[in-house]
Specification:
With about 350 residues, this protein is an alpha/beta fold. It is built from eleven helices and eight strands. It is globular, with a radius of gyration of 20 Å.
């Protein structure tokens, strides 16, 4: 995915260890987890209880193909900093829609010919979607984690849940590459396609390709935490709306969908015959989220100013005041997102 400047990812700073995965008592250092156990400086030998056989970084010579939506240049950097993914994970987990899980569970239980679930996680990052979803689904699960960053893939594999809601085994494999040109063949055997904070950084064509691939494979898609373009802050300021509008325009640069993503995706999946359900999944940020709120504010205002440089002088004072209120525990923010569940018609080839 293309890198933009002045986004929350760029503004993020290291804030400590990744939270422990469900069922484990210890936390995993971000740096240690991101390094393969054999990497100099990892500080530890491989732990057979921690590392899943076959998971982790995949060398270029033998790497497996990934689903691909666009080609990336060799010098292009990942869009999301791991520190930002770490910082936002608790808020993401709290925001995701529980209301969409029951219809998803019903569909998964009725997929034909299943001895277990095969779940593709597109743009998995550090694996937060798997940590949230796998323990909420019954039955054996095999997660196929897709990301371009081998160190993020290694961490996602190491920190993945080991058990489903009913105690069934959860296994993972990793596939390195940018999210790319999807075909039904790429999703052959998939029970579910999932992603978090992905739709808004895709183009209309890419979303339509994703919808067609899911329909061709006969598998549902759970796509969470797409930006909705609306922000509500306590103690409203006249500049709030200008910043929000400029940020939204920034998100649409280069043909990306930004806050239009869920509407476009809903139409694309419906055109493929899927039943589409959308539910809000807003971050609710308060005094307990000071670190996340501060980083989000810097990225939100920074992107707005990059889009409209004429805002710079007023935005500087605005940001300083908002950050001061945040540090004092006086700022509350609702950052609106949406979750989308698309229930494609099952096909004989998906079983």
């Amino acid at each position: 995915m293309r890198k933009t400047t002045a986004t929350p990812a760029d503004m993020a700073r290291h804030v400590g260890g990744i939270p422990a995965q469900p069922g484990r008592g210890e936390s995993v250092s971000l740096v240690e987890a991101a390094l393969p156990p054999s990497h100099p400086g990892s500080g530890a030998e491989a732990d057979p209880e921690q590392v899943i056989a076959g998971a982790g970084p995949v060398g270029r010579s033998g790497e497996r193909p990934t689903v691909r939506l666009r080609d990336a240049g060799p010098d292009e950097q990942p869009r999301y900093a791991p520190e930002w993914l770490e910082l936002r994970e608790p808020a993401d987990a709290a925001a995701r829609s529980m209301e969409l899980l029951d219809p998803l569970r019903i569909r998964l239980a009725n997929l034909p010919g299943r001895s277990g679930l095969a779940i593709h996680d597109l743009g998995c990052g550090t694996g937060s979607m798997g940590r949230w979803l796998a323990p909420r689904l019954d039955g054996a699960q095999h997660w196929i984690l897709h990301d371009r960053d081998p160190y993020l893939l290694h961490f996602a594999a190491v920190a993945s849940p080991r058990a489903a809601a009913d105690g069934s085994r959860v296994t993972v494999e990793t596939r390195r590459g940018d999210v790319a040109r999807l075909t039904p063949d790429a999703l052959l055997g998939a029970s579910l396609v999932t992603a978090s904070a992905l739709l808004d950084v895709l183009t209309r064509e890419e979303v339509e390709t994703l919808a067609a691939a899911c329909a061709g494979a006969g598998c549902p898609a759970l796509l969470t935490l797409s930006v909705a373009g609306r922000v509500e802050l306590s103690d409203p300021d006249p500049l709030d709306d200008e910043i929000a509008a400029a940020f939204n325009d920034h998100q649409r640069r280069g043909g990306l969908l930004g806050p239009d993503a869920v509407a476009v995706a809903g139409e694309a999946f419906a055109d493929q015959g899927a039943t589409v359900k959308v539910h809000p999944s807003a971050w609710q940020l308060g005094p307990e989220n000071v670190g996340l709120t501060a980083q989000w504010l810097r990225g939100w205002v920074g992107a707005a100013v990059e889009e409209r440089p004429e805002l710079a002088e007023r935005a500087e004072a605005y940001l300083a005041a908002r950050l001061a209120a945040c540090a004092a525990g006086e700022l509350r923010a609702t950052v609106h997102h949406s979750d989308l569940l698309a229930l494609a018609r099952p096909t004989g080839g998906a079983g």
